[in-house]
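Q: How would the C-alpha cells look for this protein?
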Amino acid sequence: MALATEVNTDATGVVIRGYDPVAYFTEGRPVSGRPDLYAEYGGGKYLFATPENRDAFNTNPEAYVPQYGGYCAFGISMAKKFDIDPASWKIVDKKLYLNLNPAILEQWSINAHDYIQKAEKNWPQVRTRAASEL
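A: Here is the predicted structure in C-alpha cell form.
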C-alpha cells in the first residue's frame, strides 16, 4: 500500500484532479472523469470518462498512471513536490508526465529526457516525504 505522500491526491483521494489517465493516451488530451467510474490504485482514486477507459486501466494500471505519483515531473527533477495542472502534460516513451503549469511544461519539454533522468534519481528519496519537508 502506497503512503499518502507517494500520490498527489486532492482531499478526497482523487488523482490528476479527476481527469481520466487513459484519455491522455487514447484521445491525446485531458478529459474529465466521472465520479461513478473510478478505480483505486497505488493509494489514489482515478476517475474515468468511459467504462472502456476504466477497464483498460484495470487491466494494466502501470501503463496509464502518471509518473512520480502524479506530482510535477519538473519539481521531482529538483527533489521537490509540486502540484500539477492536468492540461500541462506530455507522454514520453509511453509514460505520462504532468507538470505545474504551461510555462514549466514548456521548459521541461526542451530537455525532457534530462529532467526525467534527474527525477528518476530523486524519486526514491522524495516519494515518501511530504512536500512541506522538501
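The first strand starts at residue 34 and ends at 41.

Helices lie at 21-26, 51-59, 73-77, 102-110, 112-126.

Upvote if useful.
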